[in-house]
Specification:
Elements: H1 8-14, H2 20-33, H3 37-43, H4 49-59, H5 63-70, H6 76-88, H7 93-99, H8 105-116, H9 130-133, H10 138-144, E1 146-152, E2 155-160, H11 166-176, E3 179-184, H12 187-194
Length: 195
């Protein structure tokens, strides 16, 4: 069963961005003026526009959008444009934001690192363990654009630019016989090392 999203007012109060009294005052104004609640909260000076937009991204279920808005890399309107494009195809949201020119790949990696609590690595400076590279066939590395870097504590450390690809992680674990520990690197960096 699909979870019903929380109302933006609930999210704002839960996160301590507005008080219950401020929310109730804004709802009173909304009854009379028929304006969007967020607009009223901003006009009344209860919340900054960026914080409201980040809460809206959270309401839409986009943690990545929330992080990018909080970092002032995009606004809610740009996020909605990316959602519209994503609705017509199943590409990752971050890739769409890059293609639209709203963010750079390094911005996406920083946001993904924050979202998933992953380390970012510079492949040119990372000291690779040659044994790690032998654990996954080259065709699979190219298919998923990943690069094995090391074996640590029973984990195969793998660089990826897409930590949301659950199928890839599952396949890599099955083929390698290791649990996978992801680190982040740019797609361009990984591809250049795989060539």
């Amino acid at each position: 069963m699909q979870k019903i999203p929380k109302k933006v007012g609930e999210i704002l109060v839960e996160r301590g961005l507005v008080t219950e009294q401020q929310l109730l005052a804004a709802l009173d104004i909304q009854r009379n003026k028929r304006l969007p609640l967020g607009q009223i909260l901003v006009e009344q000076g209860y919340i900054e526009l960026e914080k409201l937009e980040a809460a809206l991204a959270r309401q839409y279920g986009s943690r990545l959008g929330e992080i990018l808005i909080n970092a002032k890399m995009i606004n809610f309107e740009k996020l909605l444009q990316a959602f519209d494009i994503q609705r017509n195809n199943s590409r990752p949201l971050g890739d769409i934001l890059i293609e639209l020119g709203y963010i750079q790949e390094c911005d996406l990696l920083e946001a993904l690192a924050k979202q998933y609590g992953l380390e970012m690595v510079d492949l040119a400076r990372y000291e690779n363990n040659p044994e790690a590279f032998t654990k996954i066939p080259a065709d699979m590395l190219r298919r998923y654009t990943v690069m094995p870097l090391d074996i640590k504590d029973g984990f195969l450390v793998v660089a990826t630019s897409n930590p949301e690809d659950i199928l890839a992680i599952s396949d890599l674990e099955f083929i390698s016989g290791f649990h996978i520990k992801l680190v982040l690197a740019t797609k361009r960096e990984i591809q250049s090392f795989l060539e």
